Amino acid sequence: MVRLCASFGDALGYIRREKFVLAVVDLSLTDEVVWEQGTIQEHLEGYDLLAQTKSAAIPTIVVSGVASVDDIQRAYTQHSIFAYLEKQAFDRNIFRRLVEEARLSRRVVRELDRLTDRGREVLIY
């Protein structure tokens, strides 16, 4: 089942109430300007949503028009996203492939969670 969300609050509510196998997030849900430590900082609510999907262990694909190298790096390193696609270069076939890969990776993680500590140790070696 797919849930479409019109706002950060809408998406956050769904994430807190339901279980998801995949999230697709736009970083610039609402572009706020925040006064922080004496300077004006841009705040993208999509990052707040990524923090929620990470804590809920939901594989996440970002599809966004925000494409600075720093934004992309932050999404991968701080929020452990599965993939990042730029809206300007969006390709449906690539998106479909990534969705399937993300869903499969979730299944593999669930299977690995069933292993005992000794089972994980044997798998690593």
Task: Give the spatial strand order of the biggest sheet.
Answer: 1-4-5
Overall mean pLDDT score?
80
| Uncertain segments | none
Main β-sheet description: 3 strands, parallel
Number of strands: 5
Structural class: alpha/beta
Tell me the distance between the termini: 39 Å
Order of SSEs, N→C? Answer: HEEEHEHEHH
- What is the CA-based Rg, rounded? 17 Å
What's the overall geometry? globular
What is the helical fraction, as a range of percent? Answer: 40-55%
Q: How much strand? A: 15-25%
Number of helices: 5
Would you kindly provide a written description of the structure presented here, covering whatever features stand out?
β2 (about 30-35) and β3 form a beta hairpin. The mean pLDDT is about 80. It contains five helices and five strands, in the order αβββαβαβαα. It has helices at about 10-15, 45-55, 70-80, 90-115, 115-125; strands at about 25, 30-35, 40-45, 60-65, 85. It is globular. α1 runs parallel beside α2 (about 45-55).
Characteristics:
two-stranded antiparallel ribbon, 3-stranded parallel beta sheet, globular, single chain, alpha/beta, 125 residues
Concise account of the structure shown:
This protein has 125 residues and is of the alpha/beta class.
Layout of SSEs?
Layout (H helix, E strand, L loop, with lengths): L7 H10 L5 E3 L5 E6 L2 E6 H11 L4 E5 L4 H11 L3 E4 L5 H22 L3 H8 L1
Parallel strand pairs: 1-4, 4-5
Antiparallel strand pairs: 2-3
Helix pairs in contact: 1-2
